[in-house]
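Re-run with default settings, no changes from the original entry. Doing this only to confirm the output is reproducible before filing.
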Amino acid sequence: VAGPPAPLSDLEASSRAAWMAKQGLPEGKAASSADEPLGETLAELWGLPPGSGAFHREQAAERQLLSFAAAATLGPQIRAHALTCTSATGRLSAALCALWQQERRAPAVLTVR
């Protein structure tokens, strides 16, 4: 006879531990990562340099997310370029340049229609 189902937090913790073990991350870190803020966890997984505290690492993680989100809204060439960039600044610069090009082309496209 099976007992009551495990709480969702236990399932999440065991799933996270299994995933982190598969990634080769330390086992002790997997157990405590559920207690860390999301920014800290993302920063560690993405290998971001440690800032002067969790706030700066969280800002860097948010910048990474923003850079990928900005590139994802653009054409396939910019998205492919974003995947090859090693920095959020490079991705954001590429996205910004593509947006400026679209802005310059918009009046010409509108006049043709």
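The mean pLDDT is 74. Residues 88-112 form the longest helix (25 residues).
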